[in-house]
Input
Amino acid sequence: MNNKSWKDYIVYQIYPRSFMDSNGDGIGDIHGIISKLDYVKSLGVDIIWLSPVYQSPNYDNGYDISDYEAINPDYGTMEDMDLLLKEAEKRDLKIIMDLVINHTSSEHEWFKKSCENDPVYRDYYIWKDKPNNWTSFFGGKAWDKYGDQYYLHLFAKEQVDLNWHHPKVMDEVQKIMKYWLDKGIFGFRCDVINIIFKSSLDNGRKRIILTGREHYHQQEGMHQILKTLRQEVLNKYETFTVGETVMVTPKQANDLIYPEKTELDMIFSFEHMETDQFNNKWFRTKFKPKKFMKVITKWQNEVYWNANYFENHDQQRIVSRFANEAFRKYSAKMFATLLIGLKGTPYIYQGQEIGMTNGDFKEMSEFMDVETHNIYALAKKLGFSKKRRFKMMLKSSRDNNRTPMQWTKDGGFTQGTPWLKQNSNTKTINVEAQEADQNSILNYYKKMIELRNHEETLVHGDYQFISMKKNVLVFERTYAKKTLVIVCNMNDTDRKFLNQHHGKLLMTNYQEMSNLKLKPYEARIYLKEI
Ligand code: TEU
Ligand code: CA
Output
């Protein structure tokens, strides 16, 4: 499909630290990405979402930026970045970058001057004589002391919240966005964008999670900021924007994305990724397909346009988390069918397309994530046993999705020692083996992407939930004179399924099919002419 519109695009997320290392230091880098652009292109995707490569002391793997217009030497130089943009464009691949404007690194020049009470920069950040009772996303207090005042950090203490009441902050961010758009990027993934405006610094209602959030979550001031960025910057270019919006509801999502091109194009919600937990992600519960699909269906029915994802650099591997790993090959393909079959933009996270599993960590020293270590320490303080704490980390650490990309049976990510332990199952789960296997997860993703690129019903069709009997999902997508019937057995067991007149079979994740039942994680797509 040529002259695509923004709703046609499919996005592939690259986490640079773990994608491909070109110089043997064990850290993924820009030249590594360039060396794999033909692979990314071969998937059939349109846009790369590149997680941060900006200058950063790396407390939170780049989500703590110390210079927005410089490249972290871990990943290369600005010349390398310019080359990546050029090489991507040659392949008709667009690149969107992370826009992290809720906070900067504590090592940003602005914060250093703010700490020195520089009259221009002091109010770039949020200072108080005494901290209020707000708590951090990473556990613990949201304030740290410098000099005789406290500064706000809703994430790590090295990630200092910007003061969006200050007009200079707006000017600085517009300059950064124009710098990158003028370089040729296609847009932004806006990090925690719906908490950037703090309406007050009053104490919050005491909560188990995020005391204080009523003062900064989804505030009117945030909408004003986004409308200004849209008018002053984004609408001057052809752009694609997606916001990461914590704790957002369907109505709040629509407020952010409709009418089109007034704030963001779409947003990542979290509700469907929180159905297998009790209170928070560290208390995982069994994945319940019915509960999961109830949320997905709500968002499909109520939101103008969804950003559909099941994995990213903060989540865990769905074949480990949402399914029985014994049926990994089938469950990965079933989730690919669901993800790309839904209405909205599909986001595929590196490694998801080959069915990578959670990491095989054996001890805490193998984890690198700041959140994981903070929460482990907090759990210890709260009296959780070592065994219980470690089990919580194994299930819910973000490092599960940050293990090096598995290119070959020997890994193929680096000639050196990877910064984060590579999963030993790269021996059997890797790109090379799957490129050679026409029935691999990788080739199934390519077929599903190809289908979406040629079947406009998957782009423009409405979503119609049909049934979810005994966790066999049936939904339809209808557009013009065609209906696609999408069937997903979300169980690790057979399920009775009479092959009624669903129409012509377009896709299936098994070689042979029964007319009476679905096998574990069997997925099918039928085309019905109406
Ligand atoms: O994530 C924000 C966010 O909501 C997650 O931190 C989530 O709360 C947490 O991962 C649940 O385990 C964005 C980035 O995606 C994340 O990588 C950064 O750590 C965070 O913001 C701070 O920039
Ligand atoms: Ca490297």
